Amino acid sequence: MSDIKTDNRIETVSKILGREKGPPLDDENPFEAMMARFDRAAELVNLDAGLYRVLRQPEKQIIISVPIHRDNGDVDVFTGYRVLHNTSRGPAKGGIRFAKNVTLDEVKALAAWMTWKCAVVNVPFGGAKGGVVCDPDNLSMGELERVTRRYTSGLLDTLGPDSDIPAPDVNTNERVMAWVMDTYSMHKGYAVTGVVTGKPIEMGGSHGRRDATGRGCMIATREALTHLGLPIRGTKVAIQGFGNVGSVAARLLEELGLTVVAVSDVSGGIYNPNGIFCGDAAEWVVKNKYLEGYPSAEKITEAELLALDVDVLVPAAVENAITGKNAHTVKAKVICEGANGPSTVKADEILEDMGVFVIPDILANAGGVTVSYFEWVQDRLGYFWDEETVNERLNDVTTRSFHDVLKVSQDNSVNMRTAAYMLSIERVASVHQLRGVYA
Ligand code: GLU
Predict the structure, then answer these.
(1) What is the pLDDT of residue 15?
(2) Is 129 a residue of the active site?
(3) How far apart are the CA of 168 and the centre of ligand 1, in A?
(4) Arithmetic mean of pLDDT, 317-332
(5) Beta strand ranges found along 7-74 (DSSP E)
(6) pLDDT at residue 85 greater than cutoff 90
(7) Would you say the CATH fold of 212-359 matches that of 60-193?
(8) What is the pLDDT of residue 1?
(9) How far is CA 377 from the centre of its chain?
(10) Phi, psi of 140 (to 5 degrees)
(11) Looking at residues 220-229, what average pLDDT do you find?
């Protein structure tokens, strides 16, 4: 075993970066976006050059074929990915998404974001992400189940409560997690509840997990408004995305006293300057699948929603919502990133110049993985907490993490995103230094 040098004066991240100037940044490639933020923070914390090289690479990248029988008897083959970015602090943790446009680069970025996210909230996990390239809207329930089970069986060597623990992400949910748990458990020969989080409560899921990401967004927004001296009551908020994160964030921000004036989904946006009743809108979506046609509001486009004259904007859909092209249209004073990677690097620069306070994704949406950690702890103990306990502990972790990041931001005169990366890189690096490089 050799130690990673802690005082590498000969080679620094700045020197490596100076030497390795590659092609110009592709602003909408999530992996490049993640790396650009990582490079900047690594330079600021003066990360050891050897460790910098270690953390730039995912530990493991798996690509599998996922063949299934379609309902009509045909065999179709989908592509599945699982990337483990870093497991120095504990088992790899991160969701599985099913979407048409999933790419390996995207999954690599999302896996690294999970490493930083787990470190920001200081839960003992590393980072991972998985994805299957498919269109879930064109799969029957049976086909979806077969995709999930075949994908899980392709990853049996990687998955496990001590090694790699999936959770829901874009287009996956409790139902899908139950199939993952069952497939894994059938191969083991006994029920392994801790192999996934975000499961149904009756089979080892946690109270409060379903709302956790949206609840974390609400808590982070509350802390940001208080820090900035802005009022809570009547403060206007627009939310892009009305799925598991956006719809819950909308409901909880409304309960806190803010006025949700606009929400959107893939069918477009709805706007009511006097406030949208989020419960009503959610009921409409349960009945009609999309927000489109919702009666008590005006129809707006997504571009119009992002540019609304509101105090808080919550991008809670997918990557690259706010880019170099539209960041200057934002009027909000606070952005709470409910999605992973909703702003590009160019957008960061513009928003910073405009003085917008951005609560970065790896802090803003970490409520999900925080309660996933609670779920995993409960599964290991076989002792379950009530919802009030879960929500209280989530409130403690999110509030503390917000203020940890804020302190780094103030101490180093950097924005909240750079501060969150600095904090998490230092936490991961210190474990690597203690563990050394096994060779
Ligand atoms: N997919 C969620 C995220 O991006 C949750 C991950 C988890 O709970 O493991 O944070």
Answers:
(1) 74
(2) yes
(3) 6
(4) 95
(5) 60-69
(6) yes
(7) yes
(8) 44
(9) 20
(10) -75, 170
(11) 98
